[in-house]
Amino acid sequence: MEFVVLFVTLNVCLAATNLTARKPPQYDLSDIVETSYEMREEANKIRAEAFELVNRALEIKEETIATREATLSSRSELERSMLETLTLVNTHTAATAQNIAQIKNSLSGITNRLENLEAKVEANVQTTDIIKKRQEVWSSEVRLISLYKMTDQTSTHVGHHSGDLAVNGQFVFATVVPGSRGMLTHQMTNSNPNNKLNIRLGGLFRIYRVKVWNIRHCCRERLVGTRIYADHRQIGVAVQTKSLYEFDVPEEDPTYARTITLHQELVQYLHVLEVQVWGSGPFLEDDLFA
Questions:
Q1: In 3D, which of 231, 222, 224 has the Cα closest to residue 199?
Q2: How far is CA 229 from CA 31, 260, 266, 273, in A?
Q3: Deepest in the core among 26, 94, 183, 199, taking most CB within 10 A?
Q4: Which strand (E) or helix (H) includes residue 119?
Q5: Nearest to 261 by CA among 275, 248, 273, 249
Q6: Most distant CA pair in the chain, distance
């Protein structure tokens, strides 16, 4: 801008010098005077325009200085903002690095605990396998599972012939007993249709064999027609008069039950000397080894 001002001033001075140094031609005095006035007015006009250009140049210079100051101020504000941002980023980066280090340490601790847990689980699995094998061996033992178990029957004949006498382990095989009191070791219902004797095993057992001893002193034919059930599955029927009935469950077709039932559908007494149930268990519903 200073160059523009100098350039304009130089032009004005040169113009004034040319006007001063110009040799007037040989005119009349009045023409010379008139021409002089015209040149003077032109010089004044040029001088005014020069001053106006100088003022405009100064205004432009001031605007430029103000713009530069504003630019510098904005630049300083931007630099300060960037510095604050970088500081914040560095702070967060440091915190993130610290958090990552803590996470790594936590993961390392978790990994160690998981390894210890896996080792313990493996040991527990081995222990569980041993316990299961022992349970399988123990559960595979076929034994008497009906002795002294709870019983119920549809009716009880006079003389207190309760169902518990069928699972008390006492046998009277003689056909004649002095005083006949020994016959009280058998159970007996009234003479009604659909008499039942239920033996509650107290758990879920695998049934291998059911043995039924008929009474000996009389009326053994009353047991004919009696059906033997393991829960809802029929495993045998007394089809003829016998002293002892044995009903075996096939090995390839295992049966599990909680109750053994003797069911006489005919209008007849139901009386037996003893009932023996042979099996293994007990088992859980979802833990059958068969």
A1: 231
A2: 157, 6, 16, 18
A3: 199
A4: helix 29-139
A5: 275
A6: 193
Residue 151 half-sphere exposure toward CB, CA atoms < 13 A: 30
Contact 235, 209 (CB under 8 A): no
Q: Which residue has the higher pLDDT, 190 or 84?
A: 84
| pLDDT digits 0-9 by tens, 123-165 | 888 888 888 777 777 767 899 999 999 999 988 877 657 888 8
H helices then E strands: how many in the chain? 2, 8
Angle at which helices 29-139 and 2-21 cross, to 10°: 170
What average pLDDT does range 233-247 have in this prediction? 96
> Do β-strands 195-213 and 274-283 pair in parallel, antiparallel, or remain unpaired?
antiparallel
Amino acid type, 249:
V
pLDDT band at residue 182 using 50, 70 and 90 as cut-offs = very low
Which tens digits make up the pLDDT trace of 36-88? 777 888 888 888 888 888 888 888 888 888 888 888 888 888 888 888 888 88
Q: Which residues contact 229 (CB under 8 A, 6 or more apart)?
A: 235, 259, 260, 261, 263
Residues 6+ apart with CB under 8 A from 142: 208, 209, 278, 279, 280
Residues 210 and 260 sit within 8 Å (Cβ to Cβ): yes
Q: How many CB atoms lie within 10 A of CB 185?
A: 18
